[in-house]
Design a protein that fits this description.
alpha/beta; Rossmann fold; 8 helices; 19% strand
Length: 265
């Protein structure tokens, strides 16, 4: 456990409808909700949040699973995944409905917007939380949603490979928000990632049209950047922070997306 990584964050809690979770906040400027991946708020996730703070944003980072600051290990990964799969807050196989935790996250997003002010906030979900940005888009103040390797529902079968983990009613609201130059959506994935299959991005393009910007990083065998076949976490664990590397280019696009939507707009 490396608690020093979070020493500059205000640790508090956020409660809504009987559910209370730890929350880490830091920075000033437009609000961005960082929804961590499995196994939890581990060092690469904190490093990503630090980048946002340094760029002039106020980060809201709730602890959904795991132990904040704990280093990554395969055992920790399996432990956190198992807990998420049985937790009532996550519905890992739901094709046409969001996980219940998104209701709590929407309340947190409203709180963040109230604290930060301005026209709206951004959000980024990763892996297990990757598609949660779609559910949050139901609220108009969510202006910059990023879906990084969205992995729910787990892609078991053809239907779930292309599913978006939102209800039909919410999807219609999302479509409406993206029409006529409205709220765009940014998505990131590695091409060989089995947890985030190509069918999911194909569906997003079909539903949202030009409003969906999908960045798909080549992780096929023998790819020019030498990215491994098991690459999954675009802006955290599998990021190669070197100019010209495709993961760095993806990170840079995330940062410019937030800039365009939350500052320039």
């Amino acid at each position: 456990m490396n608690e020093n990584l979070l020493r500059d964050y205000e640790k508090t809690t956020f409660a809504h409808e009987g559910l209370t979770r730890p929350l880490y906040k830091r920075g000033s400027g437009p609000g961005i909700l960082v929804m961590h991946e499995i196994p939890g708020i581990y060092p690469p996730v904190i490093e990503f949040a630090d980048r946002l703070v340094a760029a002039g944003y106020r980060v809201y980072m709730p602890e959904l699973v795991g132990q904040a600051g704990r280093e990554f290990s395969n055992g920790y990964l399996i432990q956190s995944m198992a807990r998420a799969c049985i937790a009532k807050e996550f519905h890992v196989l739901a094709s046409r409905g969001s996980s219940p935790i998104t209701t709590w996250l929407r309340a947190l997003a409203r709180n963040a917007h109230a604290e930060c002010g301005g026209p709206g906030i951004g959000c980024i979900g990763m892996c297990l939380t990757g598609n949660f940005g779609l559910a949050l888009m139901v609220d108009e103040f969510v202006m910059a949603p990023v879906l990084s390797q969205p992995s729910l529902p787990f892609p078991l079968g053809a239907e779930r490979k292309r599913a978006l983990h939102v209800s039909d009613e919410d999807l219609e609201v999302i479509r409406e928000r993206t029409r006529d130059g409205g709220c765009p959506v940014l998505g990131l994935r590695f091409t060989g990632d089995p947890l985030c299959p190509p069918e999911r991005f194909e569906r997003l393009r079909a539903e949202l049209g030009d409003a969906f910007e999908g960045i798909e990083i080549d992780s096929s065998k023998g790819n020019a950047a030498g990215i491994g076949p098991m690459a999954h976490s675009v802006v955290t664990k599998d990021l190669v922070d070197e100019e010209g590397h495709p993961t760095r280019a993806a990170l840079d696009r995330v940062m410019s997306f937030f800039e365009e939507r939350l500052k320039q707009a």
